[in-house]
Design a protein that fits this description.
By secondary structure, this protein is of the alpha+beta class. The protein has 2 domains: 12-155, no CATH class; 159-264, Transposase IS200-like (Alpha-Beta Plaits, 2-Layer Sandwich), CATH 3.30.70. The protein is built from 9 helices and 9 strands. It has helices at residues 32-39, 52-67, 69-81, 93-103, 109-119, 126-145, 179-195, 222-234, 254-264; strands spanning 4-5, 13-16, 43-45, 150-153, 158-159, 162-171, 199-205, 209-217, 240-247. Strands 1, 5, 6, 7, 8 and 9 form a 6-stranded mixed sheet that branches. The longest helix has 20 residues, at 126-145.
Length: 271
């Protein structure tokens, strides 16, 4: 099967231990097995859905601030002493962004609780604070266990040690599938995902395609897994196109999916 992958496991954001990125610490991840070996039992996957752009901005700010060591230490002291500024409506969002980034690198339980309380509030920075909260939690765990944990995040998040993916199966003929073929696709997908130690969260059938949201282990070989699902389904009438979309970046809207179809007529394979 040739699959149209918008993204696969290469869209992971990784950070370790003291929250600086892994490349700066001289550690280069060659594959998922090496990542799991490094992480041991202290592997953390961001569960919430957070836009990739927000994550990128967060880590770019973290790395930028951390490069200025003396200034960073001064900021750490300043923000710790004035931690209640997080809840002050007169403080700008940009300052609060920096506060959350810096505070999340301090292994203080009181800091963790402050970030946790802030993340529960309705705020334009709620997603930003979710990343900071996860970072702070990992840092505390790493300090207590003397084991530098690894934090993995994608746009769609995950659950436990599973990553979340949004998938689109395209019909050979662009019309609603009859009920028996819907059941075949649903049953074959659930069986294959269960065998891979994953979970199907939902499946929805549209006129030209079916979408599903599912959770899979980091080590899952996506191409062979979905090849198998499509091949099994096509034993019963060859009703699925060989190409599909798999992404861990975000849930695609109907407009985005239709745009892909109109641009390419049919999804195009890339390797």
């Amino acid at each position: 099967m040739s699959s149209f992958f918008l993204s696969e496991n290469n869209n992971l954001t990784l950070s370790q231990g003291n929250i600086l990125n892994m490349e700066k610490q001289g550690k280069k991840i060659e594959d998922i097995d090496q990542l799991l070996a490094m992480a041991g039992s202290n592997l953390n996957i961001l569960e919430e859905e957070v836009d990739i752009k927000v994550q990128k901005e967060y880590f770019e700010m973290l790395n930028s601030l951390a490069r200025e060591t003396k200034n960073y230490q001064a900021l750490s002291k300043q923000y710790l002493e004035n931690i209640n500024d997080l809840f002050d409506e007169n403080i700008t969002l940009e300052i609060k962004k920096r506060m959350l980034v810096v505070l999340a690198t301090l292994d203080e339980v009181t800091v963790y609780r402050a970030i946790e309380n802030f993340s529960k509030q309705a705020s334009p920075l709620q997603k930003w604070s979710i990343i900071a909260l996860q970072q702070s939690r990992i840092l505390l765990q790493s300090t207590l266990l003397d084991d530098p944990g690894i934090f993995i995040s994608t746009g769609l998040g995950g659950h436990g040690l599973l990553l979340r993916y949004f998938c689109v199966f395209f019909y050979k003929i662009p019309e609603h599938l009859p009920a028996y073929q819907q059941n075949i696709l649903k049953n074959e997908t659930e069986a294959a995902i269960h065998k891979a130690k994953g979970q199907v969260e939902f499946m929805e059938f549209k006129k030209e395609y079916a979408t599903t949201l599912l959770l899979l282990p980091l080590t899952t070989e996506l191409r062979s897994l979905f090849t198998g699902i499509i091949d099994e389904c096509n034993e019963f009438g060859h009703f699925l196109h060989e190409n599909m979309i798999i992404t861990n970046v975000k849930k695609l809207s109907e407009e985005e999916i239709h745009q892909l179809l109109s641009n390419k007529n049919k999804p195009t394979s890339i390797s």
